[in-house]
Amino acid sequence: MKWFDALNPLSSIFDMMSGARVGRSRRVAYLAAKIGLGVGLGLREARTLYFAGLLHDVGALVGPSVDSKWRDPSLVPVASAQWVRSLDLDPWTEVFVGQSWENWDGSGVPFGLRGREISLGARIVRVAREAAQEMDQAPMDAPLAERLARVREIGQRAGEVLDPDVVRVFEELLGHPEVVLDAFGPYSPFVLLSKRPVGDALMSSEDAVKLARMFGRLAGVLRGTPNHAERVAAWARRLGEEMGLSERDLHSLNIAAYYHDVGWLVGNPGGTFGGDVQEERERLHSYYTQAFLQQIPGLEGPAIWTGQHHERIDGTGYPGGLSGEMLSLPSRILQVAEFLVDQEMDVRGKEGDGVKKRLARLLHAEELAGRLDGPVCRAAMKRVSHDPGPASRDQEHFYHLLSEVSEMKKVLFATDGSEASKKAEQMVADILSKWTEAEVTVLYVSQTVPYYYEATPDLLANLSQYEESWAKQIEETVMNTFKDYKDRVRFKHLVGHPATAICDVADEENVDLIVVGTHGRGAIDRVLLGSVSHGVLNRAKHSVLVVR
Length: 548
Fold this sequence. Notes:
Layout: H1 3-18, H2 24-38, H3 43-55, H4 59-62, H5 76-85, H6 92-98, H7 120-137, H8 144-152, H9 164-173, H10 177-184, H11 188-191, H12 205-223, H13 228-242, H14 247-259, H15 263-266, H16 277-293, H17 300-307, H18 329-347, H19 355-369, H20 374-386, H21 393-404, E1 410-414, H22 419-434, E2 439-446, H23 457-481, E3 489-495, H24 498-509, E4 513-517, H25 523-529, H26 532-539, E5 543-547
Parallel strand pairs: 1-2, 1-4, 2-3, 4-5
Helix pairs in contact: 2-3, 2-7, 2-9, 3-6, 3-7, 5-6, 6-7, 7-8, 12-14, 13-14, 13-18, 14-17, 16-17, 17-18, 18-19, 19-20, 24-26
């Protein structure tokens, strides 16, 4: 996949989840790139501006407090920038996104930067954002002249909220019919689907999974089961391995499993079947998932598989009533994986036989009834009989480790809020539950001066405030995870080189174990800064557990 192909359709979800009109993120991205070229920036900078515009508000969806909504709107750009940092995009994308809520007169957030203290890219995104918001205030059927009149009103904010020079370039762009029709015409959301930035780049497989995981979690949050997609993905991979899928197909199946409920985010029931809305959403969401993923080149296979994950071999499923050989093997694997996850939640804690026996009997019953695929059910029964539950290979190894080593008293858990750190977080929770006397120090280390800030000295004075905000969000999330063990957990925030600081704290506290994720940064950061986990492994005098 390419970045444009993946993020452009996904931006529709950003818009819907934030209550904006569909197409707003694409409009901001398009205008930001056009303004960038208008002020004399090159094609590479214009492409960076495009993705900054597309992702400028993603923090409202991916921040640590997404489950409980944001208490402080000023932290949205902070979370947006931190999330963008984890992707393999131009590092300047993070800077533009993190400052995109700043105002020319210093009244913006999160730092209150003023004038040219704000990077040019952020000032451009700010103007594009204001224009898109004004456009969205116009009625859907408003004439083009009325739309433009609203958009031109942003000129009144020049010198206050907006950079006057950037506004002047934007107003000149409004004299070009192509720009006007692309950005503000009645069909602009559809036109902008094809307005590809020059020099689009390929997405890494790691980032493809990261995007899928994020949207899987969003769908889970909407349904009240945040970890549902991750558990389905874990089971799907294990069953795929049992069924002999290639590594390539396993990767695609993993992505499909994360995305399988994304239709809950994009589907609009609209009274199609009548009756209860929740029931309509349940019946329609797999159809919308397939239709949505089919917009993304490279996801044609996963799109079909997700669209069939509620079908059944005997034709009693939905939405199409497909049966037998009409259902692909990956689709049948997804069906069994989701069945297992749903049944696990239902049978845990019930009296009588153990969870494994109950699951095995339920799988056998589904196979005999002809609803679920027989070979996949037998593969699942084989796994159920040997495995403690849907967990990753790393977790399985860790559970074995816990049974082999002596009890540890002091643990240092280093986190940066990334997905890898969240997996490590769960492992630390397992340590706390098994070792009742264990004490955990949770450590977040702010990089002293990230290399991409060296060219923006005006921002350095505000960097500590930026990192402090993010540290507070990480602390809130981690302490919520460990709320049952709060008397044995403390949080520490330091500034310095992460690997060195982690090892120094481990030495000072004489810990028994250091727990870290593989990494939380993008590829460029890993090349120039080095993997933190690799640095810890090379420097540490204590045992280190690296979670991937």
